[in-house]
Design goal:
Elements: H1 10-62, H2 68-75, E1 82-86, E2 95-96, H3 99-110, E3 123-128, E4 134-140, E5 146-152, H4 164-202, H5 216-261, H6 267-295, E6 301-304, H7 305-319, E7 327-330, E8 336-339, H8 341-359, E9 362-370, E10 373-379, H9 414-424, E11 428-433, E12 440-447
Parallel strand pairs: 7-9
Antiparallel strand pairs: 1-5, 2-3, 3-4, 4-5, 6-8, 9-10, 10-12, 11-12
Length: 448
Amino acid sequence: MRFRLWPASLAWRTALTLLAGFAVVQAIGLGIHTANQMALNHIIAEREIATRDILLYRRVALAPAEDRPSIVAAEQGLNGERISLDPIPPFSGSFALPLPARQIIRGSILAFPMKPRFRPHRILMRGRIQSPPRMILSFKLPDQGWLTISSPFHPSAPWQSPGFATAFIVMFVLGALLIFWAVFRLTAPVRTLAEAAEQLGRDIAHAPALPESGPTEIATAAVAFNTMAMRIRRFVEDRTFLLSAIGHDLRTPITRLKLRTEFLEDDQQREKFLGDLDELEAMLASTLAFGRDVAQSEASVPVDLVTLLRTVLDEAADIIPECADALRYDGPSHVTLRARPLALKRAFANLIGNALKYGDSARVTLRDAARDTLRIDIEDDGPGIPAAELDRVFEPFRRVESSRNRETGGTGLGLAIARNAIRAHGGDITLANKHGGKGLIASVYLPR
């Protein structure tokens, strides 16, 4: 089975296209949110460092000069910080912090409560590229020297927040559910229209009308479809009525001609006239049957296809007992599908009858052609059909046998009737010569 990356369904194509667009929008939104969150986390980390450093500076600035080294030693390395008392700031190998970072740090320091005379009069802010990067703040002490604090700078990543990914996953899932619900809801009328068209093709007389409701476009399409179905039914009914009227009117003169022919004294001429009239009557009956079959007045019901095929084979054996041993069925014991039993039986009777007439045998094989399609092969041992005629023999009154003799061939409507009946069920018939040139295979495809 071939895997399809792009689904065949319009609903799935639309849903996947919208879902892909929604995913791109979500990804862009996630990127923007991540960038904003990273900037916010940088500000938070800078303020935390500034707050810790100004706290340490206050303790050192308020302490006597001789106690300051012990305070620095006690705080050394508690948060990964490096603290030193220096006559000048040790800024070798460092760089000046960007202006926004300096403004945030200075604002946090100025907002810290402290007596004016102890506030740092000078603050130098630098950075150093390491792993992790470090932020270096140097405070000018009130009396002399500098307090330098080097702190690791590692703001928390946005994705480490417990609600960061959850919010976007929930939004994506809810959006996807809404997309699929909306698409399948909006495309449901299209599926309904396709099912109605399929039912109309299989059963013109009993196909239900589409509901003429819903959005304007759907209601307009339903009205147009129902109008089309009504016109098709009227056309079929008119044609059937015309054929019935012609058949009724022609039977009377044919009967009169037969009666008058009986009074002919020339036996040879009488037999010829009667033969021509019989052929004319058979052609008329076949034509009327062809018209009635197209009318499709029979309702579809569940049918056991295997039982129907066995019945046709049994009836063929009763009609031609000498060919009973050449009739065979091969396949499952039961297969049920919805069909018009009389039309389907007539189609298979024509095909099996042709196999017996021209090939003296009929081997019927039933199997699955695809997941939802049945295949019925009717095989004979006859001479086959020229390749150029394999499709043309389905034309009404088309016969490969050119003598037009009823003893060697029919009226040329059997295959046309069979194909119309099978196509009315949503299937089709194909003909193929057997390999080796002896025999014909008629393959019937029917949907389950």
